[in-house]
């Protein structure tokens, strides 16, 4: 509701959460230390072909170090360097830090009864280090790093048994940290399974990824698990903020042809809104039947109980976290137009946009549109928890990185956020992705760099691991100090 007494100047709130974002599997390393078990990320080889390899019928989650290099095994050694890294975040003035708790560090196989105490001790230290600098932790409970055993033995999230295992994991971390951590998210980019279920659901062709029924069932199981986490958290402290998290790609119709307009509407309903509809509104949207039919899913084959549906209704999320990197274009009427592989979603190339080094279409205005679309639909607080530019950064002879291209990218997206705030959007915060260089999730590369901090490691894991602030480090420092007024 519009507040007629509020100022209309487009400024960020005084408690706006400026920070940065990472994921455990992409930076921690120590993949088999202190009792940690392997995760699905640990079984994905490095390089541009990692998803192509995982999409082969014979891929069955085996780790073959003689055949492949696994960059996630080392990450950037954050497990050893977390104090140094958090100190650098504090120097930038971070008000919050979004990170994930590696499920396999707490429950190495995923199905144990008792948690791994050494894993909990690490996160005790990490959280306390953040609080030491008045940095508020924003924790993703599951971020593309489910225990490998749950994918191999149980077949991933299509198996309802994973609800119990996740509930046990969430209960342990929420009960342990709820007095120190106010902001939580249940699953990272839960809707990404629409295009690549390997990371969010643990599904590959050998255990059911080709059957969309399995993907929908996995989603439902995750929705139930998410609501259980909200239930646990709110019983501990009703003020805890527990959100969902989706990959949002603003989508445009190729032209005014009604067929493209309708196809784009359906693309938005299915990809951008389906998962948030369930988690925010607490019920399946009316477009569900059309989506299931389009993908050959028989609703009668889905295991969904009345108790499940009531749980979804009773325990929706408190806010919407989302990643935004690019927009996409929907076209069903032409066959000879160029396509874009942006963020693995695909779509038609937009001639009005430039692309990144990896072919992602850069569209800051699309972020303002996304914020308005989400807020108009749900009227829930929003949190941009991923946004950034993957680029080839060059370290100069005197150990500097001049990344003005990254500064320009982030500046324009922050300006878009300011515009959305002026539009009336309730925006909680902004945590650019990969605030320190880490292993890319989509390509398994270090050379695809996002960070404000350069990490001296190459794609083969060779290097000193030294941390070197880039030009963007000092720029973002001023952005935070000015609360977004000096860009």
UniProtKB/TrEMBL annotation:
Pfam families: Glyco_hydro_1. One of its GO terms (molecular function) is beta-glucosidase activity. The active site is at 386 (nucleophile). InterPro entries: GH, GH_1_N_CS, Glyco_hydro_1, Glyco_hydro_1_AS. GO terms for biological process: carbohydrate catabolic process. PROSITE patterns: GLYCOSYL_HYDROL_F1_1 (PS00572), GLYCOSYL_HYDROL_F1_2 (PS00653). This is 6-phospho-beta-glucosidase. It comes from Liquorilactobacillus sucicola DSM 21376 = JCM 15457.
